[in-house]
């Protein structure tokens, strides 16, 4: 994971600040940095979103392809994740440097998103046991400035919201042979229900307190953090502890409660924003990567 | 400005892919009109005074047809009356997507400068590009794009100073909805029929209108005669699952209620499915690709031997051909049942305009008439015309528009008249059309690739070529030949060896790969020689001038030069591009005279003698290797110089010099074949002649046996030897007859791509490898071979298609097809001229030989005319004599007399013109005299005179 070099004096400064609910950049302990979301940024994907959080930037693309359902769950489609830690984000990722982090991130993403509770996977099924939609979710890290999990999860939620899957229907003949037919209207497509898709909130234990959305400097002061995925109703679907240090049960409880609160508060403005953007339709001024 | 176009498509593996294309919009696309002052265009296409005399539009106007109008009414659009038309890119693209032939015709019109057709790229114009909206179908979007473009045009042209009398834009559409919307937008819009009917000066155009859907409904009665065709998706699924079979529909020539569907299987494994009865044929037309469902085995039938022709007046749609179908059933014998099926759907129509004649309806005022195509395999077509009285007795062309399920006949429309039936030009045109020989004048696009005249040889050209102008090169050809492909030379070298050169016209220098000229030549494939007419593969400037190796002019050649010893053994072979200057263009007879004339000793004659000597050795060697000398009678007509009617005909005779030229051409072809195969083992274009299966020789062996001669057919060599030895005393013609028979046993020689086949052997020439190199002016295969050879010797650069074996293979298929059709056309032309010849002769008596014996007839060859004809022993109106056919002989016993193959007979020859569309030569037996069968010797002379008086 990308790190920053912080001197002892700086650490003390940061620690003392947080103790007083005052962070280096002026935020409170449960405040996020400035966040920007834009969807439909990559035209050859079925859904895409770009999220910047402070200096952290991630791009998520969703490609829908027809595949075979998993044998154990024949009536569900599924998601595949791949996280590309581009060396653009930080020189440490050069070569195979980002591989380990990429695997770690994508493993977490499987746990959080690839289940019936977060996304209606049944709607991805075309014909049970034979065809289903497989959503390939590709995450590209453009810039790392801490708090990757939160940024990625928001981007995934936005990209899934933006995803348009072409409508297909199965025609069958008397012999039982099935043929997939594609609608010729590009506007005729299926949308995903992203209401239950959770967002991840990372809480970092710094000193005796915990903060959300850490910058790299703050992160250097922490030994352990907790990643919690929270739905819009405040239900926790997954928790994960990251980092070397240990957490006592009491602070875990405190951090979960805080995560719930922050997560719940994150969802509604995000959904509002996405719907607003959608309603603009073609009139929307695209920002893209150079804006 | 950049936009992106997005669409999803299905991949071959069944997946779904999203495709995004960039689409650029520009603001420098001009309108192409003369009156426009805004657009900064260099040249304009559309005229200021665009006037077509119409009583709907009395002002100058430009026409904008929509896609369906172009697709269905291209016959009308092709008429020179229609000009100043704007073809929108939307329309062009859709036409291209839906029908390649119509697209090509449209492109040809656009290229014609006198027609003022302008292509407006509205899809890239900033103001006329539109994006598809939610809920809008692709067709609706295109219709809207057309309307937007028309709207743009009318506003664009209105702003000019021309005022109210200015040019207006007229949208032509047959779509009701589209028309309505256009009217709402304030556009000037007419139905196509409406507009064409308003053209007061050109009423004949109305006949060429294809029937639109509404008109079709009027004609057909309500009763449904045919089962519905299945939709394509169902057919495809059915073929996948094996319940349907895909094949080519081949109607029977003799029975309109019967057809076979030819199913291409894996490799040799192809088979046929029989289709019988109107219902089962289900509106399929000859050559369509259809889907067939096999009937249960107990409904299988045998092919009937009855000849049935759809004749007489138009049958009412509700009176079915029941009675005739019953006739079919009677001929059913259980033993010979074949797989039988019914047509369930049409995969691809291969409708083209058909030639034929009109059966004028008995009802005088009726405008609906039946049309009988010349090709018996095509059903009769119902057309609507007001000029029936003028068209009766003419050969006309008709295109099929559709075949609704409640109509007995397909509906069509009149395309054009070819002229009066029986006239030479008309019949020639019919012949070319029916054999699918492309014979239109070369288009402007093609001609634009010709070299500019006067053509001169530049120093750069000379630098790339070897200068062989000093050599004594001469050409030897048939008299009157203007496309001289080849020239020869022979000289003694200082070391005592001989240098022999074959110089072939360097056509590939002028025809560069991929341009319109090349594509046209590739499509035509070969020059077609008819009696007294030549249909060129390349424009005349090339074929008769720049490429033709005429005497005393400098020409580019591709030379193949050997060093040989006096035993005609090749010591060295060399290929080079060269410049030559032929010293003489001789005919075969002239060359022969020079060789024979001992007084002549000039360079040309010496060269000819050297060539002749070597050729004899080469020929001997070839024959020793087992090459076959076969025979077929070729006829030459003496044509009257004024009337162009044949006045006499004689069989072609071959001179020594013919075989001299041939020998060197073979040698050059073999040398080149070896060279290009060595260099490009995967993509050399070669020619092979497969050995015939032994059963093909049965008839030859039986025939020979009847004269106590044995023919060995184990190998080409054995066959050649036994043919040489086959002689019967007192019957000189026997050997020639045998060779004619042997020719009929052979397979067709074909072009192929070396990477796609493993068997290269040329059976007839007994050569392990062979190609065509020596006639690039008249054969496209030779051009490809030239290109390959040029690449092999580093004289030219290659291009991707040349090295693509699949593309080459496809090209070979076309060349083989064109080649075959040109031969058929040639034969048909000879047959037609023979008929013309006999028309003026009245009845003749000639001697002939029995060539084949059939169940109810003998086929007689008249050597004097090279003419073959059938003498039937049974006829419709007469009781047939007692016929006993013995398949073993084969012999046919008629009453007391037994006919064997090779029997000498005497027959009368006359022209049977009772059916004007299918005139034929009729033969009747005179000798041997069989009572009740043979006819008395006619008094030929007075008959002929009387005939002449009549005319």
From TrEMBL, chain A:
Alphabetized UniProt keyword annotations: Acetylation, Cytoplasm, Exosome, Nucleus, RNA-binding, rRNA processing
State the Pfam families in the record. RNase_PH (PF01138), RNase_PH_C (PF03725)
Q: What is the first-listed, main subcellular location in coarse terms?
A: cytoplasm
Ranges annotated as spanning the membrane: none
One BP term from GO: U5 snRNA 3'-end processing
Enumerate the InterPro entries for this protein: ExoRNase_PH_dom1, ExoRNase_PH_dom2, ExoRNase_PH_dom2_sf, Exosome_comp_Rrp42_subfam, PNPase/RNase_PH_dom_sf, Ribosomal_Su5_D2-typ_SF
> Is Plastid one of the keywords?
no
Compartments where located: Cytoplasm; Nucleus, Nucleolus
In alphabetical order, the GO MF annotations are: mRNA 3'-UTR AU-rich region binding
Q: In this protein, which residues make up the domain named Exoribonuclease phosphorolytic?
A: 32-166, 196-261
Q: Which GO terms describe its cellular component?
A: cytoplasmic exosome (RNase complex); nuclear exosome (RNase complex); nucleolus
Subunit info?
Answer: Component of the RNA exosome core complex (Exo-9), composed of EXOSC1, EXOSC2, EXOSC3, EXOSC4, EXOSC5, EXOSC6, EXOSC7, EXOSC8 and EXOSC9; within the complex interacts with EXOSC2 and EXOSC4. The catalytically inactive RNA exosome core complex (Exo-9) associates with the catalytic subunit EXOSC10/RRP6. Exo-9 may associate with DIS3 to form the nucleolar exosome complex, or DIS3L to form the cytoplasmic exosome complex. Exo-9 is formed by a hexameric base ring consisting of the heterodimers EXOSC4-EXOSC9, EXOSC5-EXOSC8 and EXOSC6-EXOSC7, and a cap ring consisting of EXOSC1, EXOSC2 and EXOSC3.
Give the family per the record: Belongs to the RNase PH family.
Name assigned to this protein: Exosome component 7
**What is the organism of origin for this protein?**
Cyprinodon variegatus (Sheepshead minnow)
UniProtKB/TrEMBL annotation, chain B:
Q: How is the subunit organization of this protein annotated in UniProt?
A: Component of the RNA exosome complex; within the complex interacts with EXOSC4, EXOSC7 and EXOSC9 of the exosome core complex (Exo-9). The catalytically inactive RNA exosome core complex (Exo-9) associates with the catalytic subunit EXOSC10/RRP6. Exo-9 may associate with DIS3 to form the nucleolar exosome complex, or DIS3L to form the cytoplasmic exosome complex. Exo-9 is formed by a hexameric base ring consisting of the heterodimers EXOSC4-EXOSC9, EXOSC5-EXOSC8 and EXOSC6-EXOSC7, and a cap ring consisting of EXOSC1, EXOSC2 and EXOSC3; DIS3 associates with the base ring of Exo-9.
Where does the record place it? Answer: Cytoplasm; Nucleus, Nucleolus; Nucleus, Nucleoplasm
Report one GO cellular component. Answer: nuclear exosome (RNase complex)
Instruction: Give me any GO biological process, just one.
Output: rRNA processing
Q: Which UniProt keywords apply?
A: Acetylation, Cytoplasm, Endonuclease, Exonuclease, Exosome, Hydrolase, Magnesium, Manganese, Nuclease, Nucleus, Phosphoprotein, RNA-binding, rRNA processing
Q: What is this protein called?
A: Exosome complex exonuclease RRP44
SMART domains in UniProt: PINc, RNB
Instruction: Cite the RNB domain residue spans from the record.
Output: 465-795
Looking at the record, the residues that make up the PIN domain are: 61-180
Matching PROSITE patterns: RIBONUCLEASE_II
Entry cofactors: Mg(2+); Mn(2+)
Q: Which GO terms describe its molecular function?
A: 3'-5'-RNA exonuclease activity; endonuclease activity; RNA binding
Which organism is this protein's natural source? Answer: Cyprinodon variegatus (Sheepshead minnow)
| UniProt similarity note | Belongs to the RNR ribonuclease family.
């Amino acid at each position: 994971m990308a790190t920053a070099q912080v001197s002892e004096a700086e650490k003390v400064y940061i620690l003392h600040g947080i103790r007083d609910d005052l962070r280096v950049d002026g935020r409170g302990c449960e405040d996020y940095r400035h966040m920007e979301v834009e969807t439909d940024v990559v035209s050859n994907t079925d859904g895409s979103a770009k999220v910047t959080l402070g200096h952290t930037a991630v791009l998520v693309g969703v490609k829908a392809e027809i595949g075979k359902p998993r044998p154990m769950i024949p009536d569900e489609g599924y998601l595949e994740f791949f996280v590309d830690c581009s060396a653009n984000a930080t020189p440490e990722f050069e070569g195979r440097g980002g591989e380990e982090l990429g695997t770690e991130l994508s493993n977490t993403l499987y746990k959080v998103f690839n289940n019936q509770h977060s996304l209606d996977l049944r709607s991805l099924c075309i014909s049970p046991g034979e065809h289903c939609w497989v959503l390939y979710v590709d995450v590209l890290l453009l810039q790392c400035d801490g708090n990757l999990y939160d940024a990625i999860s928001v981007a995934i939620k936005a990209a899934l919201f933006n995803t348009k899957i072409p409508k297909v229907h199965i025609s069958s003949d008397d012999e039982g042979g099935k043929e997939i037919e594609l609608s010729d209207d590009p506007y005729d497509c299926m949308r995903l229900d992203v209401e239950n898709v959770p967002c991840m909130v990372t809480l970092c234990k710094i000193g005796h307190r915990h903060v959300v959305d850490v910058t790299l400097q703050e992160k250097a002061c922490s030994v352990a953090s907790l990643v919690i995925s929270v739905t819009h109703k405040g239900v926790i679907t997954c928790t994960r502890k990251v980092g070397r240090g240990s957490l006592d049960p009491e602070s875990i409880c405190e951090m979960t409660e805080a995560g719930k609160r922050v997560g719940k508060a994150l969802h509604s403005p995000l959904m509002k924003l996405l719907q607003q953007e959608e309603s603009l339709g073609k009139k929307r001024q695209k920002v893209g990567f150079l804006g | 400005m950049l936009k992106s176009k997005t669409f999803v498509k299905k991949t071959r593996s069944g997946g779904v892919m999203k495709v995004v294309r960039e689409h650029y919009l520009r603001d420098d696309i001009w309108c192409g009109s003369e009156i426009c002052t805004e657009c900064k265009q260099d040249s304009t296409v559309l005229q200021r005074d665009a006037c077509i005399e119409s009583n709907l539009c009395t002002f100058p106007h430009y026409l904008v047809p929509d896609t369906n109008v172009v697709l269905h009414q291209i016959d009308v659009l092709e008429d020179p009356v229609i000009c100043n038309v704007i073809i929108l890119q939307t329309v062009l693209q859709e036409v291209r997507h839906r029908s390649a032939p119509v697209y090509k015709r449209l492109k040809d019109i656009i290229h014609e400068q006198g027609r003022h057709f302008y292509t407006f790229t509205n899809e890239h114009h900033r103001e006329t590009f539109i994006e598809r909206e939610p809920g809008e179908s692709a067709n609706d979007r295109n219709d809207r794009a057309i309307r937007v473009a028309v709207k743009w045009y009318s506003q664009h042209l209105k702003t000019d100073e021309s005022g109210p009398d200015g040019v207006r834009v007229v949208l032509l559409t047959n779509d009701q909805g589209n028309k309505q919307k256009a009217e709402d937008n304030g556009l000037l819009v007419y139905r196509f029929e409406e507009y064409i009917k308003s053209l007061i000066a050109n009423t004949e155009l109305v006949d060429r209108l294809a029937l639109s859907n509404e008109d079709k409904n009027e004609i057909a009665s309500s009763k449904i005669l045919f089962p519905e065709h299945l939709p394509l998706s169902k057919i495809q699924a059915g073929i996948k699952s094996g319940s349907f079979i895909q094949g080519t529909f081949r109607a029977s020539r003799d029975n309109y209620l019967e057809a076979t569907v030819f199913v291409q299987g894996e490799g040799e494994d192809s088979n046929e499915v029989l289709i019988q009865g109107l219902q089962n044929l289900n509106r399929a037309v000859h050559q369509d690709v259809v889907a067939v469902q096999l009937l249960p085995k107990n409904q299988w039938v045998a092919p009937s031997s009855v000849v049935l022709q759809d004749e007489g007046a138009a049958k009412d749609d509700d009176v079915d051909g029941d009675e005739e179908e019953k006739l079919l059933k009677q001929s059913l014998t259980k033993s010979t049942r074949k797989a039988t099926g019914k047509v369930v759907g049409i995969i691809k129509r291969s409708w083209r305009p058909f030639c034929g004649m009109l059966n004028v309806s008995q009802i005088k005022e009726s405008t609906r008439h039946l049309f009988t195509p010349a090709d018996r395999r095509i059903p009769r077509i119902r057309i609507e015309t007001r000029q029936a009285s003028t068209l009766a007795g003419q050969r006309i062309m008709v295109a099929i528009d559709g075949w609704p399920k409640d109509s007995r006949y397909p509906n069509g429309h009149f395309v054009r008249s070819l002229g009066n039936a029986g006239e030479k030009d008309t019949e020639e045109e019919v012949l070319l059309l029916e054999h699918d020989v492309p014979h239109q004048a070369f288009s402007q696009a093609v001609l634009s690739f010709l070299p500019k005249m006067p053509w001169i040889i530049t120093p750069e050209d000379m630098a790339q070529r070897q200068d062989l102008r000093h050599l004594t090169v001469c050409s030897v050809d048939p008299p009157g030949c203007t496309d001289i492909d080849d020239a020869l030379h022979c000289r003694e070298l200082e070391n005592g060896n001989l240098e022999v050169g074959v110089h072939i016209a360097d056509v590939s220098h002028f025809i560069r790969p991929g341009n319109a000229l090349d594509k046209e030549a590739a499509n035509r494939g070969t020059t077609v020689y008819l009696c007294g007419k030549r249909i060129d593969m390349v424009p005349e400037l090339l074929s008769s001038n720049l490429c033709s190796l005429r005497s005393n002019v400098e020409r580019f050649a591709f030379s193949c030069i050997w060093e040989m010893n006096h035993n005609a053994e090749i010591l060295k072979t060399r290929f080079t591009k060269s410049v030559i200057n032929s010293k003489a263009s001789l005919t075969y007879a002239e060359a022969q005279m020079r060789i024979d004339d001992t007084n002549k000793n000039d360079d040309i004659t010496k060269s000819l003698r050297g060539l002749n000597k070597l050729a004899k050795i080469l020929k001997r060697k070839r024959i020793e290797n087992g090459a076959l000398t076969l025979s077929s009678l070729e006829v030459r007509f003496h044509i009257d110089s004024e009337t162009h009617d044949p006045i006499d005909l004689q069989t072609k005779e071959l001179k020594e010099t013919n075989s001299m030229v041939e020998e060197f051409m073979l040698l050059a072809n073999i040398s080149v074949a070896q060279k290009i195969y060595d260099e490009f083992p995967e993509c050399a274009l070669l020619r092979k002649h497969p050995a015939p299966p032994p059963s093909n020789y049965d008839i030859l062996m039986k025939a020979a046996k009847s004269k106590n001669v044995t023919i060995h057919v184990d190998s080409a060599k054995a066959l050649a030897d036994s043919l040489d030895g086959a002689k019967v005393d007192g019957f000189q013609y026997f050997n020639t007859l045998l060779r004619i028979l042997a020719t009929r046993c052979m397979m067709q020689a074909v072009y192929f791509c070396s990477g796609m086949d493993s068997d290269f052997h040329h059976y007839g020439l007994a050569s392990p490898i062979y190609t065509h190199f020596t006639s690039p002016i008249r054969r496209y295969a030779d051009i490809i071979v030239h290109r390959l050879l040029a690449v092999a010797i580093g004289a030219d650069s290659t291009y991707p298609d040349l090295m693509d074996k699949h593309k080459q293979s496809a090209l070979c298929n076309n060349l083989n097809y064109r080649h075959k059709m040109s031969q058929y056309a040639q034969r048909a032309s000879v047959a037609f001229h023979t008929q013309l010849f006999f028309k003026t002769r009245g009845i003749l008596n000639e001697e002939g030989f029995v060539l084949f014996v059939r169940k109810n007839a003998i086929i007689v060859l008249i050597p004097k005319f090279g003419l073959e004809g059938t003498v039937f022993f049974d006829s419709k109106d007469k009781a047939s004599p007692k016929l006993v056919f013995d398949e073993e002989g084969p012999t046919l016993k008629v009453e007391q007399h037994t006919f064997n193959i090779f029997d000498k007979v005497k027959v009368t020859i006359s022209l049977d013109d009772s059916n004007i569309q299918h005139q034929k030569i009729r033969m009747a037996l005179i000798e041997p005299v069989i009572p009740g069968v043979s006819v008395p010797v006619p008094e030929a002379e007075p008959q002929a005179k009387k005939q002449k008086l009549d005319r």
